[in-house]
Design brief:
2 helices, single chain, Translation Initiation Factor IF3, about 160 residues, alpha+beta, flat, 5 strands
């Protein structure tokens, strides 16, 4: 009795499905609460100001509150801040100010206020990127734990000595 071989299409579909599952599990969601009507998309990069940074020196007005949530492999500050600035660019914002970022094991969250500048001016300060993780120093050496000491039992005081 001969066995039928699977068609090339079935093998290709199964391979594509398996590759998609192994590629990584992660995605990013963005949400916005509009305060004003969106503006036309800007041609320049959207500036990002973290909560404890000084706000831009130029006058601006708020367009909306943007939020990004990263799941799985996208649960890191880089992916959620990129999602914030991408969403802000689609709304015509020049910057996202008062941004806070919260990261966990499998989820990251970032939110800020999307703003439009009232007048032209110099661009914000240049981005300061974190150091390359592969160049970080190795962790300090751990001291060995003290070895346990055998204590005599109350019922037989000479045991363990």
């Amino acid at each position: 009795m001969s066995r039928a071989r699977p068609s090339a299409l079935v093998v290709a579909a199964a391979t594509a499905l398996l590759a998609g599952l192994l590629a990584g599990c992660g995605h990013t969601e963005t949400h916005v609460a509009m305060l004003r009507a969106p503006e036309p998309r800007t041609a320049h990069n959207v500036e990002l100001y973290i909560a404890d940074q000084a706000a831009p020196a130029r006058p601006f007005y708020d367009i909306g509150i943007v939020q990004a949530i990263g799941f799985g492999n996208d649960a890191n500050p880089e992916d959620v801040t990129r999602a914030l600035t991408d969403k802000a660019a689609t709304l015509g914002c020049d910057a996202v100010v008062r941004v806070f970022i919260d990261t966990g094991y499998s989820r990251a969250h970032a939110a800020g206020v999307c703003v439009k500048y009232l007048a032209d001016g110099p661009p914000g300060p240049a981005a300061v990127l974190p150091p390359n993780p592969s160049r970080n120093p190795s962790p300090p050496l751990m001291r060995p734990a003290p070895s346990p000491r055998i204590e005599p039992l109350p019922s037989s005081p000479r045991q363990g000595r």
